[in-house]
Specification:
By secondary structure, the protein is mainly α. The protein is 60% helix and 0% strand. The protein contains 9 helices and no strands. Helix 7 runs antiparallel to helix 8.
């Protein structure tokens, strides 16, 4: 692959410098993904805005993690699965949930499993879901808002997963211990 630029506060385009400063403040370092995204100030800003908005949805930390990691695992993102493992730890999400998501094994509650299944259905169906799939999601306790919030999370992760694949973003040192590769056959949706 073509080497993608990886910027810091010195080399970034002017429009990306304040965005990277925000990343530095939020993470205490510059995540590799943000350094790659900095080549396009609009991409980095769009990603940061989508991330902020998704964290403000009605989903709690466990549900946010289920949406993010379901998408990361499905896209086999070498960078985002470890990164979100670290994020889940900071959010105090149970290791049981994180492990189940990473290994594609059953989640501890039926409601979280319904969220994972619906997220996969939206992702794999490219937004085309059946009435039965929608009803199962609603029966699990989710609303129309949750449907839209899953799509918001998908929009954010589509950016990061695809950019990481194309740019071959190196894994950040703080999450190297969470390195991941898909173990087996993908889950059925």
């Amino acid at each position: 692959m073509t080497d993608f630029p990886s910027h810091d506060l010195e080399t970034a385009p002017d429009g990306s410098k304040p965005l990277l400063e925000n990343s530095q403040k939020a993470f205490g370092r510059l995540p590799g993904l943000h350094k790659v995204m900095a080549e396009s100030p609009q991409v980095l800003e769009g990603y940061q805005v989508l991330h902020k908005l998704f964290t403000q949805t009605a989903f709690d930390a466990e549900e946010q993690t289920v949406v993010w990691q379901t998408i990361n695992v499905e896209h086999e993102c070498h960078y985002c699965v470890p990164a979100h493992t670290g994020i889940a730890k900071r959010m105090k999400v149970s290791d049981d949930i994180t492990t189940a998501l990473r290994n594609e094994t059953p989640l501890p509650t039926a409601k979280l499993e319904a969220l994972r299944a619906f997220t996969l259905q939206v992702l794999r169906g490219r937004g085309n879901v059946t009435e039965a799939q929608m009803q199962a999601f609603f029966d699990a306790g989710y609303s129309h808002r949750a449907v839209l919030d899953v799509i918001l999370g998908l929009s954010q992760k589509l950016m990061s997963n695809y950019i990481n694949h194309i740019a071959e973003t190196p894994l950040d040192e703080p999450v190297q211990g969470f390195a991941w590769t898909r173990a087996g056959k993908p889950l059925a949706a």
